[in-house]
Amino acid sequence: MSTQPNHQHHLLAQWVSQYRAATKEGQCANYIPALAKKDPNQLAVAIVGTEGHEIKAGDTEELFTLQSVSKVITFILACMDRGLPYVLERVDVEPTGDTFNSIIRLESHQPGKPFNPMINAGAITVSSMLAGHSPQEKVTKILQFLEQIIGKQLSINEEVFQSEWQTANRNRALAYYLMDSGFLDCPVEAALEVYLKQCAIEVNVSDLAMIGLVIANDGYHPLLKKQLFPKQVAKLAKALMVTCGMYNASGKFAAFIGLPAKSGVSGAILAAVPGHAGLHSPFPTGCGIGIYGPAIDPIGNSVAGVQLLKQLATEWDMTIF
Amino acid sequence: MSTQPNHQHHLLAQWVSQYRAATKEGQCANYIPALAKKDPNQLAVAIVGTEGHEIKAGDTEELFTLQSVSKVITFILACMDRGLPYVLERVDVEPTGDTFNSIIRLESHQPGKPFNPMINAGAITVSSMLAGHSPQEKVTKILQFLEQIIGKQLSINEEVFQSEWQTANRNRALAYYLMDSGFLDCPVEAALEVYLKQCAIEVNVSDLAMIGLVIANDGYHPLLKKQLFPKQVAKLAKALMVTCGMYNASGKFAAFIGLPAKSGVSGAILAAVPGHAGLHSPFPTGCGIGIYGPAIDPIGNSVAGVQLLKQLATEWDMTIF
Amino acid sequence: MSTQPNHQHHLLAQWVSQYRAATKEGQCANYIPALAKKDPNQLAVAIVGTEGHEIKAGDTEELFTLQSVSKVITFILACMDRGLPYVLERVDVEPTGDTFNSIIRLESHQPGKPFNPMINAGAITVSSMLAGHSPQEKVTKILQFLEQIIGKQLSINEEVFQSEWQTANRNRALAYYLMDSGFLDCPVEAALEVYLKQCAIEVNVSDLAMIGLVIANDGYHPLLKKQLFPKQVAKLAKALMVTCGMYNASGKFAAFIGLPAKSGVSGAILAAVPGHAGLHSPFPTGCGIGIYGPAIDPIGNSVAGVQLLKQLATEWDMTIF
Amino acid sequence: MSTQPNHQHHLLAQWVSQYRAATKEGQCANYIPALAKKDPNQLAVAIVGTEGHEIKAGDTEELFTLQSVSKVITFILACMDRGLPYVLERVDVEPTGDTFNSIIRLESHQPGKPFNPMINAGAITVSSMLAGHSPQEKVTKILQFLEQIIGKQLSINEEVFQSEWQTANRNRALAYYLMDSGFLDCPVEAALEVYLKQCAIEVNVSDLAMIGLVIANDGYHPLLKKQLFPKQVAKLAKALMVTCGMYNASGKFAAFIGLPAKSGVSGAILAAVPGHAGLHSPFPTGCGIGIYGPAIDPIGNSVAGVQLLKQLATEWDMTIF
Question: Where on this chain does substrate bind (chains A, B, C, D) (predicted)?
Answer without folding.
Answer: 68, 120, 164, 171, 195, 247, 265
